[in-house]
């Protein structure tokens, strides 16, 4: 793990290292749930696990995430861990299939470098056969509470498809709310990981969810969950002192559209509400309608440009589709949630009437002289900057819009109103002249450093962020442009356009309100007081989701209680489309809020606290210990890496965490690399891998080494105690295969008088500079062999003890599963017995003879079914025991340990 930690460009918090080690702990585990509270960095925890598996060459890895998070995950993996990924969606998938690639999900190919796959839940479920054809090393589900209803017989199509597609693969589930409304949801998530963790649903309900028995068994359930679910709370992390949290503060600015703007709104809205439209391809009508409504709310410039595209398409006698609305860059994220079915045949329609109507509407948009919302922006911007400055922040603002045309309109407006030369733009293409110039200057400035990634899109974005940090006062960003960027040096965010999706709003604010933010963050929103639907959307986001005030914004607890953000957007779109009056708008939003209140009221907070939240003081102490241990291990790793640098490149000059080699300065500290003063040196890069291969290929004959502790630059007490002594040392690689493959460096060291010395001392000795000469005498092969064999026996015994613990844990799990599986049959028989009694009682009460006979026949038929079930119960118990034996037998076969020894070097040593 030290290699993975040392190679990451991020400050690790101890709870994140703890969570990653938990996920990697057992070789028999089929996966875990990481359930830290919101704001604690589950993305970092998962990335650590991914990077570790990648370093182990287990590189068939897939992330299944909400569509809105796909690009953010890709950016995080590349920037912080140097891992390349591919976002697979319909367009890219179909293109690869056309190129002859049978299964685009399998990225381990003969010629190309492997890549991590990232896709949405909906897309993954639609391609379950392809997914099942790949032997995945790791499957990561972000926002995994989307899968918690997998136990249902209906209504969980996506979850059930993904469970089948990834059966048998190791899984990592990320969710702050694995238990939201009922214990059965937690049961559902465990079945995604391992069908043999709990027994059937009926026995789970009987054991843990019914009456006094369920309450009494909660400690048992908690004990069982300890091996599959880990959760850290914010207050525990604060107690440990690792993370401090700033607040977010809200400013709202009202505006009232002009008569021209209101007329434009009413005309476009009335047009979109008509059911007989011919202008749009039926397959994508809902999505086109959504985009047009968002552009209408953005600015007259945005809706004018969109209408121009549609008019141009209709003049060709073709229907418009979502690809015509490229001004709204994130439209591809809605492909799964707004699919209106098959296209069918597109007719060559007579669209003359609609064409003229849209031309007239476009002219109306072009005639709007001023934007009331843009005027509100000019009013509030200075006031908001003043507030930020009072809070200790810089007079900088990031302004988000959903439209590229609105972005350009705002740029011109602000340039004309006192902000000239202090604005940078960021969108999906970053192809404007100013961005191209800034990219060119940035490349020249960082030429020859590791700051340049080689990806023009990523580097252009980095150049714009740097320009905003160092030179500009305002960044105007679109949704696609702002994905994955860190703007923590800014603490003012302006939502010029407010998304309907609470997850999207949270992601925007998360660009500034994140780790490393030193100041409280101010969030500015605009409210159109003449549009009740717009007001209700803001109230929903502000009051129900608590997005704009407080320390953490929308919690996963709240977001997890609703359906996906796209579903929320679709519900809101339906309100805009169907409601013709203010009263209808009020009632529709009241109904939506009542549904959400009911969902939130159902959340079982108390049970979740009892099961997966550990309150004892030892948690904070353990995290403190993990911080110290991680620091020590990283320091040791870096010392060893620098020692290897000296050994392979004798000309290298080492200075602290830096070294100079072939006119280049390298650093092992990623923060130093961020400044551009040195290149980040980490394993996995071509230069470092070349160094490793050179070291492995070196011919190392026996030698005599004279170690010089005074030249080390630090004090090693155990090494210093051996001054004036000499002896022998041999090192080699021991490979063990059992429950998990182990490849360990074994160092055997002894003094000339035969006294064995600890391996820790030997490892520290090898960090000390030494002079090499030919051996002064021949080695005693038998003595070396005896010492090596003794060390290998000790290693095997240690590994066997560890394996025995894993085996005992697996056996205990399967015993519990078998007991519950057997109990399920008895529960079914008992339920039949109760139903038979009820039928017989009903028959006795029946007055009509035909009713009495029918109930008696039904009771007799059920009695026969119960007898048959009783007869089959014995066979079923035998089958369960056989399945349990087979599972344990596979584990027992894995326990058979095989070992090999590969000697590397033998030396005589003397310590001056």
TrEMBL record:
Keyword GTP-binding recorded: no
Residue runs in coiled coils: 582-609, 829-865
Domain Helicase C-terminal, chain residue ranges per copy: 380-559
Record-linked Gene3D superfamilies: P-loop containing nucleotide triphosphate hydrolases, Tandem AAA-ATPase domain
Residue ranges of every copy of the Helicase ATP-binding domain listed in the record: 23-196
Keyword terms: ATP-binding, Coiled coil, Helicase, Hydrolase, Nucleotide-binding
Pfam families, sorted: Helicase_C, SNF2-rel_dom
Keyword Coiled coil appears in the UniProt entry: yes
GO molecular function terms noted in the UniProt entry: ATP binding; helicase activity; hydrolase activity
Name assigned to this protein: Helicase
Organism: Roseovarius nubinhibens (strain ATCC BAA-591 / DSM 15170 / ISM)
Lineage: Bacteria, Pseudomonadati, Pseudomonadota, Alphaproteobacteria, Rhodobacterales
